[in-house]
Amino acid sequence: MSLAIRSLTGRETPPAPAEIDAFLAAHPVPLVEGSSVTFLYRGEAHAVRLHHWIYGLPSARPFTRLPGTDLWYLIEELPPGSRVEYKLGLIAEAGEEEELIRDPRNPLLARDPFGANSVCHGDRYEQPAWTLPDPEARPGTIERLTLAETALGREVPVALYLPARFRTSRRYPLLVIHDGEDYLRYSALRTVLDNLIHRLEIAPLVAALPAPGERLVEYADDPAHARFLAEELVPALERRLPLRREPAARGLMGASFGAVASLSTAVRYPGRFGRLLLQSGSFAFTDIGPGRRGPVFAPVVRFMNRFRDRPERVSERVYVSCGIYESLIYENRSLVPLLQGTGMEVRYEEARDGHNWENWRDRLRAALSWLFPGPLWMVYE
């Protein structure tokens, strides 16, 4: 049992409310002591449960009520370096529905398109300094344009990240980022790019962030999506901006279904994109069980089955990452030797994290500094 919580539980009489107040005021929540993590909730309830997103473990873990008090606790083991997102489930009265809430005593939040979760930082996890604003790093700029009459049958808004000190006398690598606006909102993409460019860890680059339409359709090996990227978006940007034209200076990036879209586009246009950044890809294939992930994955399964039957060298460098707490870890691990077998250079990284934007944020330094390294990439006209 946690040493801290033992001071409240290891006694014959329940602690007084003032003692609990003092305890909670003196300890951050959750309590992290080595690999032991104690979650706490204070309030009247019929039951309290922890809902986490660690694949392979029961997703709802019951709290224990400290007898004679309104304090609830749950002690879990969490490997060092872990980062876990969670919510608390409250059942006010027997028979009532459970209400999911953020941990009211934990100020750490992670946001995503569906809202926000509370966050537990395991022992020795720290948010990387290069993901935080640096007053010495000159900020890049965001410009916006719209491409009309595209292969997708719709107008496509595109946000463009231009690095600080952008000059038309230089030529820049291009990185096309799926779900780029979400990377901006939830993965601190602009701050990360500003910092890594300022530190000379990555080359000054242009990032294009096209907005998806029906994301689960367009990203699931859709030929129209691949044609839009390769034959419309990239040529339009090359006409507009001073970009390098060789494949090694052109990349595709995405997470989850965005990783599928990046790989499938590279397969449809082999040799066009020399850099791929694939994060927690939804690389479903038949071996994991037909229909396991539902009908929306059917095009992905067909694509992955074809690629696994006939893997080919479609790029030069591929960075792959996945969280070990994700249900997709098996698929991503299985993909790596296939990619390596084609002769592509592959780097693979696992993290003690789940399927979320801050996991993907924390991997960007390793990925981008390998795919688009430092100032040697600067080219002048």
What is the topology?
Elements: H1 3-9, H2 17-26, E1 31-33, E2 36-42, E3 47-52, E4 60-62, E5 64-65, E6 71-77, E7 83-91, E8 99-101, E9 109-112, E10 115-121, E11 141-147, E12 156-162, E13 170-171, E14 174-177, H3 180-186, H4 189-198, E15 206-210, H5 215-218, H6 223-240, E16 250-255, H7 257-268, E17 275-279, H8 298-309, E18 317-323, H9 329-341, E19 345-351, H10 357-362, H11 364-371, E20 379-380
Helix pairs in contact: 6-7
CATH class of the largest domain: Alpha Beta
Q: Order of strands across the widest beta sheet? A: 11-12-15-14-16-17-18-19
Runs in which pLDDT lies below 50 for 5 or more consecutive residues are none
Q: Termini, distance in Å?
A: 65 Å
Class based on secondary structure composition and strand pairing? alpha+beta
Number of strands: 20
Mean of all residue-level pLDDT scores: 94
